[in-house]
Recover the amino acids of this structure.
């Protein structure tokens, strides 16, 4: 083999090696980018949360001021948040004492929600998915709730059937509660929501 031919082969190998390194670096970059995007858009919304007791709301998520991360999470989860002119949504994954909601425990939801044309209370998984069908209902609304003569009410969230306002939980599995206020006069700002008095969530006995 001549020296010129040998040098030509070495140059070809060098170029192929450079191309391979570039391709590997590109694939690693794409993989890291996809992984970072998945992590950033998985779970709860990262910005703009307002807390009131065990309840959390993201007042800007349904408006034009929603940040890019919120839009990406909404698109990935295929959800439709309430618009600012429609109402407000609140999420609770813990009780008033800060303990995660457990389907093996009984809970009482009491108090008076803010003024709204209609409100609904729904049970979901902590990731925001619908619970599997169970022996009882998973949601209740202001036009369905049974009230006392004074106008107040109590909702029991438990795995076993109860009289009155009862929502059925998956026994032993974690869950979340959403409170949706439709056509409410509550201002959708972080400051006003953090000072808002919402429903209390009190844990009772556990199996």
């Amino acid at each position: 083999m001549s020296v010129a031919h040998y040098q030509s082969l070495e140059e070809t190998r060098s170029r192929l090696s450079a191309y391979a390194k570039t391709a590997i670096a590109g694939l690693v970059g794409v993989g890291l980018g996809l992984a970072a995007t998945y992590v950033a858009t998985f779970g709860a919304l990262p910005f703009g949360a307002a807390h009131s007791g065990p309840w959390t709301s993201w007042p800007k998520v349904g408006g034009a001021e929603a940040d890019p991360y919120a839009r990406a999470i909404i698109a990935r989860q295929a959800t439709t948040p309430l618009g600012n002119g429609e109402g407000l949504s609140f999420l609770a994954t813990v009780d008033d004492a800060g303990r995660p909601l457990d389907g093996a425990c009984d809970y009482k939801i009491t108090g008076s929600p803010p003024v709204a044309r209609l409100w609904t209370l729904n049970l979901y998984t902590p990731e925001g998915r619908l619970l599997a069908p169970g022996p009882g209902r998973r949601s209740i609304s202001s036009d369905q709730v049974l009230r006392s003569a004074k106008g107040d009410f109590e909702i029991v969230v438990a795995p076993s059937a109860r009289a009155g306002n009862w929502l059925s939980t998956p026994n032993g599995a974690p869950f979340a509660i959403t409170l949706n206020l439709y056509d409410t006069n509550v201002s959708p700002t972080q400051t006003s929501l953090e000072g808002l008095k919402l429903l209390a969530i009190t844990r009772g006995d556990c199996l």
